[in-house]
Specification:
By secondary structure, the chain is an alpha+beta fold. Helix content is 35%, strand content 33%.
Amino acid sequence: MAADVTALSDIDEREIQVFVEAVSRYFSQITGQKAEIRAAFLTNNERALPVFEFTGMIKISGDYYGAIYFSTDRFLLSRLLQIMNEPRHGEEHLLDAVGEIANTLAGNARQHFGEMMEVSVPLTMDGKESKNLKGLRDRPYVIMVRWKQYEASVIIDIKRKK
């Protein structure tokens, strides 16, 4: 059942911090090195969202509505797969990896927001598909991440139902 978009309210800065901490925790746990949060900002939905070559999306429902995205290039994903001792780095493995990262970030957020935030299985897309992303919110939240020399973005495009 689709949410009534007119009955949605904004999430606040403290709630966005949950995602910032989830990104930092993910890289620290997987790689032993923190990722640098380069910027966190509201984007203007009239211009393209900052997406890269691979994007993982988790749809959110329940007391919240929208989606969470993790987007990066093949080089960051390949490096993470190497660290996890995964020998295969083909396109399907990179898509699986970006989906699992998005799923992990959403799962960490769900621990904060509670069981009333339902998360979907990861959906993945390559760069051509993700270039057409349009957010639910007028101004989705974006967290720009750098790990080593690699760039990524986390896009938080969710609202709370009133």
